[in-house]
Amino acid sequence: MKFTIHGVRGSVPTPKDGFLKYGGNTSCYEIETDHHQLFCDAGTGFQSAELERNTKDTFVFFTHFHHDHIQGFPFNAGIFRPGKKIVLSSGLLEASKVNSTMQNYFSGSYFPVDVFDILGHLTVEEFEEAKNLLNGDVSIDCIKLQHPGGAVGYSFVSHNKKIVLLLDNEFCLSQKDVLLKFCENADLLIWDGMFTQEELKDKKGWGHSSIEQAVDFTEQSSVKRTLICHHAPNRSDQDIDKLRLKISSQSVDFGFENMSLII
Ligand SMILES: [Zn+2]
Ligand SMILES: [Zn+2]
Predict the structure, then answer these.
(1) Rounded to whole angstroms, what are the CA distances from 36 to 63, 89, 135?
(2) Which residues of the chain have pLDDT under 70?
């Protein structure tokens, strides 16, 4: 699988000097398999993804529907070009709710055109049906996370390689065993490192984990490599560089926009 980060910032874009080394666009992660182009979320990073719609079907799996995870969707010209279909789905909500949430957000008072009205090749599928449509090319599973309004994490497995994304999750001890199992033998884990442990003291209930928890969790797991993502919008490149120096684990690092890995 080819894994690419198109957007790694949490909450709101940060397109300014001092924030571009790690990146200013919000959540969007691409997993390209033999026959499919999959995205986890379509934050503002989605606008720069090159859609392979002539050769591969495109699927977008949403972790949840906070602005920073959906806002880039209609700004990728590739969704309007002729080509193969685009499937939207989420393990969090049933298809009718995904459809109404996205349609409301990208129409009426919020958006100049009704995007879903003009995209005949776009379908919204139940999560189980979306998984079936992938025809065994990649198997996907999801897990409920701790986040206001709800969110899910995903695992993607193909050719015995496994990528797990646990974005927008407030890690708590009661989740530990089930998340360790979900991440078992993962080659790559994407972790919500919005806060430091110190910042987390005042941010209980905000729905995010810490950088230190990424290290603790990885050390107790069988995960081979963890990338800390969903960087706080006030976290500059310099801040992240400093935090990187403090990370003791060889298996944990920070993700950055345009990072690409073959898993
Ligand atoms: Zn978020
Ligand atoms: Zn969120």
Answers:
(1) 19, 14, 10
(2) none
